[in-house]
């Protein structure tokens, strides 16, 4: 029709001009010949001189042919459109209702929330409809009056499995998800619960009893998950809040969600067989426990003597996954030993390793990381791998504890936080179990990538005093199994024989879901790239080790420490309930080389940066043991992250005269970049982290850092 109208608009002026010209010629001919126009024959009308009738005939034929052609084309176009329209209407009418619902649910979250509330169960059943061709999906959109203009291209490409991966990255490149969040967040958390409250809920007082009964059956139920039919009955088909990962960040998010939305229903999916727990004690306090059954109880005494469990909450805190849908007051449920293998960000659903599908309203990715290994060990064969521990989980702690009691030699490869902590912990056992503990690393001293050289050398001597044999500047060339031992060949020719290897060479962020979800991974730091609100999509957040975020002071970063997991998880949980807060927190981390030496750090602490250290003589209260007695917790970030520094007052005590050569009892190390403090280590100085955080936040140049060090009161007795 549009083409016909265009043709007519072009021909109409030409036809009108021709008619006018013909009339003028007739009038002129009549005046010249003294005749009236009534007697002029139509065949003699011409735009040229008298007698040119043949030219007029050709002109009339051309105009007539154009009109006839336009009419025929218009008729065929209208007829074809009518036939196609009728065919599509018949196809739509013949579709089942459930299929229509599945296409509606693939629309933007604003529409999806309404549809999910009306039909909560059919979403997993509608998954097979993804194989249908895309053109019919566009027709369904045409029928829905509430669709946005961006919906048709998004929905028409949604059914093929590979399409989200191709389409998703451009959507994130400009980070536009913040706008949709304003519209979606108020509705998503509150709409699904009413639909789920239609079932008779259990009483509030029955929650602890049900959760306690579910504490032990959880791993058992998962162990029986080989029967997919039985497993599917235990897994809810929908979770308003879905948390992927069962670590510190995930638990912090769950508590934050429940604090802001008391009726929230939260589902945690974790690959591990245990409920969320603290990882720091696995390489610290647990090794110093006098309880022979510590590997079973997983309870330990903090440096201050108080006992606690590594688990954040007892089993009674959680409800079972089966109860989640019908829980009147909501709750937190855990699916253990389950791995998310596929994520459909457009369909708002995930697939587990047993092919179970779970839909969600809002999702947090807190998958953490996996420990790295040396390629020479991976290539050495199965026999070497069986005698190698990659330390990360509870099972790794139990395994290494057992190994340390049954072998004669353990070699730790790595001189960072984890390697140095494990070396000190195992070194304490060396005399009791006649165990040889070796630590090797490519740096010159312990913590060589973090501490300035003089302090790294001092730390190395401290580790040696714990009974550890240090092999520095060691690059592993090969590892072989020979005579029931492992032979580690170094590149400089040295040969080390040992019974077991612990590889502590760093962490690789777990971004396995990036491909199926179409989420962007940072090429420099690894991890999922998120915006200031820790969002990767409008209804997807990332927290903990797997999040690559932008620090307003220090640039884009990825942090692998407990405090960051706590704070980022908590903020992500708040934003999932509509807080829309940016992540401005400067996270801290700490490391203890036993109960007598420890340090806390914040910002960028890199030994390649210029440093200024200010030290003083330590007292009995300047130890990790004294710090936990003051704060009441061994997880020091729990007390640090809640405090803020306001106008710190420098100590009035003057710095002692004379230098304390090689005496690093306590002190402050400042890391500088362009004369601005970007990192601080508090060496045996505790409960001063808010002051350090404020110094980095201010971002000012300091002419005399000795005066700045007085803010930490290191010269007070």
From TrEMBL:
The keyword RNA-binding does not apply. It is found in: Cytoplasm, Perinuclear region; Mitochondrion inner membrane; Mitochondrion intermembrane space; Nucleus. SMART domains: AIF_C. InterPro entries: AIF_C (IPR029324), FAD-oxidoreductase/Apoptosis (IPR050446), FAD/NAD-bd_sf (IPR036188), FAD/NAD-binding_dom (IPR023753), FAD/NAD-linked_Rdtase_dimer_sf (IPR016156), MGARP_N (IPR032773). Residues 126-168, 196-225, 644-658 have a biased composition (Low complexity). It catalyses: A + NADH + H(+) = AH2 + NAD(+). GO terms for molecular function: DNA binding; FAD binding; NAD(P)H oxidase H2O2-forming activity; protein dimerization activity. Its main location: cytoplasm. Its cofactor is FAD. Residues 94-105 have a biased composition (Polar residues). GO terms for cellular component: mitochondrial inner membrane; mitochondrial intermembrane space; nucleus; perinuclear region of cytoplasm. Residues 114-124 have a biased composition (Acidic residues). It comes from the Eukaryota. SUPFAM superfamilies: FAD/NAD(P)-binding domain, FAD/NAD-linked reductases, dimerisation (C-terminal) domain. It holds the Pfam family AIF-MLS. Functions both as NADH oxidoreductase and as regulator of apoptosis. In response to apoptotic stimuli, it is released from the mitochondrion intermembrane space into the cytosol and to the nucleus, where it functions as a proapoptotic factor in a caspase-independent pathway. Release into the cytoplasm is mediated upon binding to poly-ADP-ribose chains. The soluble form (AIFsol) found in the nucleus induces 'parthanatos' i.e. caspase-independent fragmentation of chromosomal DNA. Binds to DNA in a sequence-independent manner. Belongs to the FAD-dependent oxidoreductase family. Monomer (oxidized form). Homodimer (reduced form). Upon reduction with NADH, undergoes dimerization and forms tight, long-lived FADH2-NAD charge transfer complexes (CTC) resistant to oxidation. Also dimerizes with isoform 3 preventing its release from mitochondria. Interacts with XIAP/BIRC4. Interacts (via N-terminus) with EIF3G (via C-terminus). Interacts with PRELID1. Interacts with CHCHD4; the interaction increases in presence of NADH. This is Apoptosis-inducing factor 1, mitochondrial. It comes from Gymnodraco acuticeps. The lineage of its organism: Eukaryota, Metazoa, Chordata, Craniata, Vertebrata. The gene is aifm1.
